[in-house]
Amino acid sequence: xxxxxxxxxxxxxxxxxxxxxxxxxxxxxxxxxxxxxxxxxxxxxxxxxxxxxxxxxxxxxxxxxxxxxx
Length: 70
Fold this sequence. Notes:
mainly alpha
């Protein structure tokens, strides 16, 4: 089953697809993954708060997930 991340997904939804996605978030400076509020934020909202390009983050998350499926 193919897993795909979108900008609208919450961080919690992304992490529930694969816990390894946490590393991608952390690589973009999003180290607040343990904060309950951050789990409800969308990828786009988290990127805005951390000055990251949401398209780049989504691309990296989807690349990571694609690697895990191989």
